[in-house]
Specification:
This protein has 107 residues and is α+β, with helices and mostly antiparallel strands. It contains 3 helices and 5 strands. Strands 2-1-5-4-3 form a 5-stranded antiparallel β-sheet. A hairpin with a 2-residue loop joins strand 1 and strand 2. The chain is globular and about 50 Å long. The N and C termini lie far apart (31 Å).
Amino acid sequence: PMVTGVQTCALPIYQFEIIQFNQAATKLLNLDNACLGMPIDAFLNLDELGKIRETGKAIMGQRCKTAIYDVLVEQSVVPVPDHDYLFLLKDISAEEESMKAMAKMRK
């Protein structure tokens, strides 16, 4: 589903399972309460997941597509106390389309 406007999804993750999500995540990833406890990689392409697990370091501003709905997002993964990680997602698909359209007009 296309989410209009700038909204940041927040997903606190414990052992790489979803423990909470905000309204923006509900819209972007079509999450509901049945998703609680599910592995985050069911929804997000986490090529860097192994690296995150090994180092425990934050990843900021990574551009990738979601595993579900194939939406282009900017993803940041931040270690936080009381949860293993906080995943922050921003839908940048409309922004990307605008950039492509402007590049096409310049040619």
